[in-house]
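Re: the multi-chain job from yesterday

Posting the exact lines I submitted so nobody has to dig through the queue logs.
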Amino acid sequence: MKRVYAKEELCLNCRLCEVYCKTAHSHSKDIVTAYKKEEPAPSARLRVSGDNHLSVAINCRHCENPKCVEACITGAMTKDKATGIVYVNESKCIGCMSCLAVCPFGCIQTGSFAVKCDLCRETGEPACVKNCPNRALVYTALGGEQE
Amino acid sequence: MSVNYIPRRFDIVRDNERCVQCGCCVRQCSNECHYFAEGGKIVLADASACVACHRCVDLCPTSALSIQKHVCDYRENANWAPQYQQEICRQAQTGGVLLSGMGTPKPYPIYWDKMLLNASQVTNPSIDPLREPMEIRTILGRKPRQLEVDAAGNPLGEMPPQIILETPIIFSAMSFGSISLNAQKSLAMAAKNLGTLFNTGEGGLHPDLSDYTDYAVVQVASGRFGVHKDYLENARMIEIKIGQGAKPGIGGHLPGEKVNVEVSNARMIPEGSDAISPAPHHDIYSIEDLRQLIWSLKQATQGKKPVSVKIAAVHNVAAIVSGCARAGADIIAIDGFRGGTGAAPTRIRDNVGIPIELALAAADARLRDEGIRSEVSLLAAGSFRCSADIVKAIALGADACYCASAPLIAMGCHMCQTCHTGKCNWGIATQRPELTKRLNPDIMHERVENLIHAWNHEIKEMMGGMGINSIDSLRGNRLMLRGIGLSEKELQILGIKHAGE
Ligand code: SF4
Ligand code: SF4
Ligand code: SF4
Ligand code: SF4
Ligand code: SF4
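And the result, structure tokens for all chains:
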């Protein structure tokens, strides 16, 4: 399946991927409104870690055998059979954060429900990749190295 | 802290209605102008170090930022303009020579803007470049006086080495050291894809560019940095750098801080040592000496590489060009005084040399008068801002034009003129790894190629309008130019008529 791969040697630590991810997952889809007006506040599903010298955008690997799905007690965390995308069914999630405890990559964030990357399944076009100013994120079926 | 006698130059204006405190500007400004306050709730700025590079402006996701000229009036004085007062204060503080980056910003006449191009009407047809072939292929190198062929049409005798370019635009010298490897690599990739040349400057050739040596002009400058057999043999052309338009008559100085391991390897000098290029080549004190170096370089490469001599446009340029041609140069590059630089003493940059337009016209005329114009190719350098400048240069007699600032602007340069500080926010004129990675060659070579493709189209369009379908018919065709608002003397030097004549 296609995944988002981060190239840390090109990452600027600008964190615009976070801004655009958050906006893509807002109601208004407008950056200023998303950040300042919306309740509950939307959140970014990926995190940039590091500083200007070395940074990398960490996002969900959409694992083959996802620990988060295994651990989920309500069946809210699902791996879509057709696309391979691991996503949270928000109406089923009770916010117990069992998934957060088991994800080996730390890709789940807390909120009123578990917040994680859904590969922008609504639009099919990852907002983080589209808006990264330095092509430090690639959306590809190959590993970052072979790309 | 001592009092700074110089007001800041810019204001950073933030629209707080739009700012979402994402901190992108805080992390992107290498001059550390932006900062978080109140525990990250607001972002403030201190503009005293702002150079108006627009990195923060362009990356701000909400377009919340603008940079404005800071107004702080002095009492009006046509003689003691604020700039001079400020420069005096800076020197009073540092005791040093003023340094600047990029070409001179002074309002000297720009003759490109005082020349107009011709177009065909009624008496001869214009050509539509979209429907008919239009040739901009450019061939550099010494042309034989006559071509001897056998009965079957095969050339007899040796043809001097020629370089075939798919565009009359080549990238001028910018060394690894003065610009980042990523910037140089972007130009190398673009040169390869466009069928033109890039120039290593005097900084040697980094091993990462070994795939691009067929498109490389390698320089032999007074410091002789990085010059060895493979360097010369792998290049497409060898250029002896005598002078640079932005700083004629003086050498170069790459401070030790910029000489990291990689720069030191490419230049073949110890890490951390200052790379000093002497003002003259200490083995060239005359045209005869130049002839010897040209000969040596040709010997070292079995006569397979054209040798170019690059000089700054100075008062006696025509005679010097003639001397260089007679010394055996295959190509002569003339760099006008508006040409760019990574670092130059401000006074030299702003006061020494002459405009490329006049230098080129004078040199071309002199070589023609002496009947040796076809023995050399002439390259013009020193600030081409658009395709029309290139067309005018070719009509004045250039074979091709060296461009550097324009491709740098395509890669993000905003002409903030602080290349010499090594803190370029766009990853161009810096060696700091956290800044150089901002320039991704995979993106930037495409932008540079787009620019040159666009200029190529425009050049063809202008040629077509004149009824010319081959760039060879435009070269030195001064009838295609008319002056506007120029004196008799200027027209005479440019060798063109006034508009209406
Ligand atoms: S947008 Fe791209 S360059 Fe910026 S932090 Fe995210 S991954 Fe890195
Ligand atoms: S959240 Fe973690 S465990 Fe679940 S699919 Fe993503 S990376 Fe794998
Ligand atoms: S793919 Fe979409 S949801 Fe996932 S991190 Fe990128 S922007 Fe966010
Ligand atoms: S980049 Fe723009 S939105 Fe982000 S903190 Fe700076 S001014 Fe505000
Ligand atoms: S120096 Fe450049 S990045 Fe820094 S504040 Fe000024 S314009 Fe913005």
